[in-house]
Amino acid sequence: MTVETVIKLGLALLFGLLIGIDRQVKQKQLGLKPSMVICIASCLVTIVSIDVVIVSQTDPVTDVMKRLSHEESGAETFYYLHVTNENSRLLGVVFLRELIISSPDSLMKDIMSPQIISVPVDASQSEVLQIIRKYGLFAVPV
């Protein structure tokens, strides 16, 4: 089991517990109830099944395409690439469609969308759902 998988499992457990506790408190029930287990399982499936692909702003399209075709990390479910600078700061995203139609010599910084849509860690499910619907996202960074 890789470190990344352990982190994903830990996050799924944490978020699932938080969502489950929030639901239980609103219903005035405490303890590990079936709905809390469902929340944990739901978060687990979501977090573990969505892979994050990070590329450098200076990477050319050809290098990224080669990397994706040889990716061994199991990055099978992703919709966009996260573009970072040399300090690993998130600068923007590149949607797969944009990657495919771009010139092979284009750099990620030239084709990325600098608009980063995310939600705070304490956002409720309804707030996250509103953001996903508003922007037509498949996943949203926390």
TrEMBL record:
Assigned keywords, A-Z: Cell membrane, Membrane, Transmembrane, Transmembrane helix
Pfam assignment, any one: CBS
Domain CBS: 109-142
Domain of life per record: Bacteria
Cellular localisation: Cell membrane
TM segment ranges: 6-25, 37-56
Residues in MgtC/SapB/SrpB/YhiD N-terminal domain copies: 9-66
SUPFAM superfamilies tied to this protein: CBS-domain pair (SSF54631)
Membrane topology label: Multi-pass membrane protein
GO molecular function ontology, one term from the record: magnesium ion transmembrane transporter activity
GO cellular component: plasma membrane
UniProt family annotation: Belongs to the MgtC/SapB family.
Protein name, UniProt field: Magnesium transporter-like protein
Organism annotation: Paenibacillus larvae subsp. larvae
